[in-house]
Amino acid sequence: MTIKFSRRTFLKAAGAASAGITAATTVPKKFLSWAEEAGQKDMQLIPTFCELCFWNCGLIAKVENGKVIKIDGNPLSLRGRGRLCGRGNAALGALYDPDRLKFPLINTGTRGAPVWKRASWDEAFGLIANKMKAIKDSYGPEALALIYHGTGAAFWKHLLHAYGVSTFAAPSFAQCRGPRDIGFVLTFGADVGSPEYYDFSKSKYIVLLGSHLGENAHNSQVQDIIKGFSSGAKLTVVDPRLSNIASKAERWLAIKPATDLALLLAWIRIIIEEGWYDKEYVEKYAVGFDELRAAVQEYTPQWAENETSIASDVIVEVAREMGGNSPNVCIGAGRYAVWYGDDTQRSRAIAILNALLGTWGREGGYFFPSGGKVPEYPGLPAYPTHAEGGPKLDDAYPFALLQTTTSIKQATITGQPHPIKGWFVYGSNLMKTMPDKVETIKAIEKLDLLVAIDTMPVDFIKYADIVLPECTYMERYDEISSGKFKGQGEIALRQPTVEPLFESKPSWWMAKELGNKLGLSTYFPWKDGEEYLAKRCEAGGIDFAQLKKSGVIVTPGKPPYISADNQPEFGTPSGKIELYSKQLAEKGFDPVPKYTKHPQPQAGSFRLLFGRAPLHTFSRTTNNFMLTDLQQENSLWINTKKGKELGLKNGDYVMLENQDGVRSPGRILVKLTQRMRGDAVYMNHGFGVHSKAMTRANGQGIADDDLMTDAAIDPIMGGTAMRRNFVKIVKGG
Ligand SMILES: Nc1nc2c(c(=O)[nH]1)N[C@H]1C(S)=C(S)[C@@H](COP(=O)(O)OP(=O)(O)OC[C@H]3O[C@@H](n4cnc5c(=O)[nH]c(N)nc54)[C@H](O)[C@@H]3O)O[C@H]1N2
Ligand SMILES: Nc1nc2c(c(=O)[nH]1)N[C@H]1C(S)=C(S)[C@@H](COP(=O)(O)OP(=O)(O)OC[C@H]3O[C@@H](n4cnc5c(=O)[nH]c(N)nc54)[C@H](O)[C@@H]3O)O[C@H]1N2
Ligand code: SF4
Ligand SMILES: [Mo]
Prior knowledge:
Radius of gyration: 25 Å
Distance between the termini: 58 Å
Bound molecules: ligand MGD, iron/sulfur cluster, molybdenum atom
CATH architecture of the largest domain: 3-Layer(aba) Sandwich
Structural class: alpha/beta
Oligomer: single chain
Number of helices: 21
Helix content: 25-40%
Mean pLDDT: 93
CATH class of the largest domain: Alpha Beta
Strand order of the largest sheet: 5-4-16-15-14-6-7
């Protein structure tokens, strides 16, 4: 497929992109003055893809005189379809942020109270290599770990693998979607993908539990649900807050926080007892129906009303609506899933409900994905075998199918099951990302080496020994992005649109140079990032020259739905959908989810809830000048009546104090609203930045993470539940 950059395509794409988006899309002069002129005369159009969140939408940069002056969505991108969200439009704010990390830095002070020395790349790599060797000599390669988030991590994984390291963890598992993935893997033998395999555009009925689609700007998914609405799809949203998507729904169920499992179990019971389930589907594809049925008998609608505060007749009506629209129903699996500590079981309940309604592999439910893959670089030496048979860090959490940050932190503190002495942290701001900072700092103090690879001087940077400044996604070749979609897949290329600013460098270069220092040059035979990608594409029969021009190549796929000649396969031990999970029973967990009560706030305090700012990605963008114009600080949503009782009004500032007496270092703006239940307050995550080097974000709003001293661990997969903290409102500040 080719892309023609005709003016019409551009106008169409630009028009679509700007619909609903208010961000300024050209860069103000003052932010460009420090960027070097490259003498480029003619406008170039260079496709690449976004890294302002993991959705990785395709974009096209307009480049003039060596500067990016505007970006648009790439119409070929299946993740964006020519559109960008408000954050995606702010690429220039990431690229031309004057606060960016500019040079390699070595900390000559202490962790937490750094004294920075500007270093050459050679000096920085030399120091890292020496410390890596010392750690490997004393403790073995398994004493090194990588914590990562983002595309460029692929090069660090390659380097560390080659060095014999295998402990890699992404917070996007144990601090995000891990429980959902494991809940679905235990039930269907497969996860729901990223982007999720929701067939929203064909759904007749959609249920979202605590998934505030739109505020979480999952680009193509938002487009799909809107398509679904225009074909008549009905939506029920379960959320203690009237989110933006709840305001588009037929029904908003303002559930008491921490009780979703009660609602789900009651729905399962009604679907079974009233006979709404897809009998043929369940009989053919599932096991454990009788055990499930017996186990949910106690969860009556009346019982669920008492737990959730949702009227029992509404609970029954929604179950009937789901049943009546089966199988063209999608009960969303959610994404940020680490809520209360029994999250894998809540996700299991969502999976079971989908199974009963026969939505897996059905139109309007969950489609079977198709996707292309690009082979590895040809002819690379095998990685050394390492740590085989030794104790795994995650033995405590039997279904941690991916390594958890939780275990890395624990092993670093205790030295058990083996010591961890060095961390590489790529694109993860651990001070905002992991709950319980005191413990995180305790772990960091035990390290012999802490390397941060980042683009910005975020809060976490001050704990690093060595800081490696990566150039932004607009300035580099990177790992290929391959995505799975309905009936087709995509291969997307990231390529530089301009030269890296200052001394920042791409990860492919850093990994290769450090690899050379470590004697691993045979693992890095490529000349540069472009050749690395070109060779891989060539090996996979993908036209690299074409990919450079179009940014995205769409690959053909397979049928998305179950049919006589497209039968599903389930990767569970039984080869069927497991309504009753023997795997869980064998490890001492409930084979069918059981409800457990969670603590509720005491009088005068509120549960602290949080979620995504539509125009920011966590702490990734809180310093982005195109986005701070639109939202500079977060605010605290408080139920109007409750707020008035406390003598608060809109525009006041307050501080918060949590159950352990920890007070927010800053202050937050009050927003009184009837869109919030009275037993919880809500704020956007990512604000309350402490790093003074982040000049626009510093001190704006407060951080949910500063108040997270309680985080239960999901015993099944090691996720850290963060919605267990309660706060009191402290006036003034
Ligand atoms: N308190 C609290 N904690 C949470 C959450 C919450 O809502 N509240 N959300 C959780 C969720 S859902 C997730 S997925 C995790 C995410 O947490 P992280 O994995 O930490 O992800 P981000 O916040 O996206 O990472 C931001 C870091 O990446 C850097 N960065 C940005 N672009 C680049 C780049 O191109 N190269 C490099 N090297 N670095 C870059 C940024 O400067 C920043 O330091 O946090 C989890 N933790
Ligand atoms: N704009 C933007 N988009 C993003 C991101 C971003 O930072 N910015 N981050 C991305 C990432 S990594 C992720 S994981 C996703 C996360 O996106 P989502 O999975 O949608 O997760 P949250 O942002 O945590 O969802 C918060 C919603 O859950 C509700 N909620 C809180 N407690 C409960 C409860 O007990 N029960 C129920 N039913 N609801 C509850 C809150 O009121 C809020 O509306 O977003 C992604 N998209
Ligand atoms: S959803 Fe927005 S921020 Fe995320 S990749 Fe797409 S355009 Fe970028
Ligand atoms: Mo996430």
